[in-house]
Structures are given as structure tokens and as C-alpha cells.
Specification:
The structure is a single chain. This protein is mainly alpha-helical and 268 residues long. It has ten helices and four strands. The strands form two sheets. Strands 1-2 form a two-stranded antiparallel sheet. Helix 1 runs antiparallel to helix 2 and helix 4 runs antiparallel to helix 5. The radius of gyration is 19 Å and the shape is globular. About 2% of the residues have low confidence. The structure holds fe (ii) ion (2 copies). The site of one fe (ii) ion has 8 residues, from helix 1, helix 2 and helix 5.
Length: 268
């Protein structure tokens, strides 16, 4: 578990302190301090790539930290974590190149280490896989498919193709986590408890840091209107990542698409 000097408090919520960043980056603590635009203007395009690039860097750090923190995990699982580090490194580099090609630069927009702050409070590998791979990267699969369409609609087929390529890797990151969590749960009932601890902590932090009704970010976008409409569950890719039908149904219900989910009798 982190020592007190490794922790920080944001709006009364305890999180792991930020990882080191080059001086060019401005690190912020709340979504409202990010420059998320709700359009596809030039500056918004650069900001999207910049935020995505930083997110991939952060994922690399989270996964590499798991390799360091859990040396006794099964070798094959450690190999998966190592392969994921390689993928996330490539993703960061690809997005950085694209950002430069669009006239952007590293540090052009504020960045936030939210995923790091949450996952690094968790002291078991099952909890980290549940929160980082299954939840954060599971959510990223939805976002990437949607982003692919957004870039394509504005005529940038190169960036759209990039989103599709990254998505193929993210499916694999969610899938191996699902497989290992299932196997570990079969072998040790404590795994489910560890997963539950992770999900509960994430829920508590998300609620604690959720934007207040009508809260506006640094570039004037209303945060309570912005986040939700954006993401629609990408069912096909989630199936590829081996969520069960029941888990998919649960996800869809949570996002307000319950009418699409067959009732248990229909499904049988
Ligand atoms: Fe990635
Ligand atoms: Fe990933």
C-alpha cells in the first residue's frame, strides 16, 4: 500500500500522487481544468490527440508498475503485461507523431493522471486488471470506435485508420485481463473479493470527483452534458474481448440501453 507521502487529496478524495512528468507538461487535478472541446476544430483535433497520447503514456506506466509490484504473478500473465507495455509505448509514439504532423507539440494542453491516481491505490493484481484493463480500457474501446467515425466524418481518414488500429490492441488488453481474472477466480475465491474492492474504490472516487451539475471546463464546455452523450457501448468489440452476454447486458442497462437487452426468458 502507498505510504502517506505518496498520496494526494483532490476535492476531499484520496489518490496516488502524480507520476513524474517532463517540465513541458502542465498537470491538473480535475476534469474541468482540461481543455476538452466538443467539436472538431483544428485546436480540438490537436487536443484530442494530445490527451490520447498522454493517456497511452499513463497506461504504460500503470502496467509497468504492475510488473514491478507483482513479481510472483504467473509468468504467462507477466508476459502479457510486458507485451501490453510494448503496445502502449507504440501507441504513445504513433499519437505523438500524428500530433506533430498536425502542428501540435508535447505539453500544448493540460494533462491529468486520473487512471494512475486510482489504480495505484490498489494492492492486488486482480483489482488493477479489473479497474485498468476491464473498466478503463474497456471504456476506451467504446471511445475509439466512436472516434474513428468522428475523424472519418471530417475527412481525416489517416487518423480514423489509426483509431481502428489502436482498437485492435485494446481489445487484446481487455481480453487477456478477462481470461486471467476468470482463471484466477476459479483457482482462488479471494480474487472476486479483490476485484470487488477495486470496483468499489473506483466507484467511490468517480462519485467524489464527478462534475457538479452545469460545471464548465477551461474552454467553456459543459461537463455534465459532454461526457455522457459521447460514449455508446461498442458491443461487437466487447464481445471480441470476451465479456459474457450477461456482463454486456448489465453494461447496456447501465448506459440506458436496457430496451435492447433481451430479458432472461427471451435469451434462453
Ligand atoms: Fe493503448
Ligand atoms: Fe491498452
Amino acid at each position: 500500500m502507498p505510504t502517506p507521502d505518496q498520496l494526494k487529496t483532490v476535492r476531499g478524495v484520496t489518490l496516488r500522487r502524480d507520476p513524474a512528468r517532463e517540465p513541458c507538461f502542465t498537470v491538473v487535478q480535475l476534469h474541468k481544468d482540461l481543455h476538452d472541446y466538443d467539436d472538431m476544430s483544428d485546436v480540438s483535433r490537436r487536443q484530442r490527440l494530445h490527451r490520447h497520447m498522454h493517456n497511452e503514456m499513463q497506461t504504460l506506466e500503470i502496467v509497468a508498475q504492475s510488473l514491478a509490484d507483482f513479481p510472483d504473478a504467473p509468468w504467462e500473465l507477466r508476459m502479457q503485461l510486458a507485451r501490453q507495455c510494448w503496445d502502449e509505448t507504440r501507441h504513445s509514439a504513433i499519437l505523438y507523431r500524428r500530433l506533430l504532423a498536425m502542428g501540435g507539440r508535447k505539453g500544448e494542453f493540460p494533462v491529468m493522471n486520473y487512471e494512475w491516481g486510482v489504480t495505484q491505490l490498489l494492492d492486488s493484481l486482480p483489482a488493477r486488471l479489473a479497474v485498468q484493463n476491464r473498466t478503463f480500457e474497456g471504456g476506451e474501446m467504446d471511445l475509439l470506435r466512436q472516434q474513428e467515425h468522428m475523424w472519418s466524418e471530417v475527412g481525416d481518414e489517416d487518423t480514423a485508420a489509426l483509431m481502428d488500429a489502436l482498437l485492435a490492441d485494446e481489445v487484446q488488453h481487455v481480453r487477456y485481463a478477462n481470461r486471467w481474472l476468470k482463471q484466477m477466480a476459479r483457482e482462488n475465491a479471494r480474487t472476486l473479493l479483490q476485484v470487488a474492492v477495486g470496483i468499489q474504490l473506483l466507484k467511490k472516487i468517480t462519485e467524489g470527483l464527478a462534475p457538479e451539475q452545469g460545471e464548465v471546463n477551461a474552454v467553456g464546455v459543459n461537463l455534465t452534458e459532454f461526457t455522457h452523450v459521447e460514449v455508446i457501448t461498442n458491443t461487437t468489440d466487447r464481445k471480441l474481448a470476451e465479456f459474457t452476454d450477461k456482463e454486456l447486458a448489465e453494461l447496456l442497462r447501465k448506459e440506458g440501453f436496457g430496451s435492447l437487452v433481451p430479458s432472461p426468458t427471451e435469451a434462453a
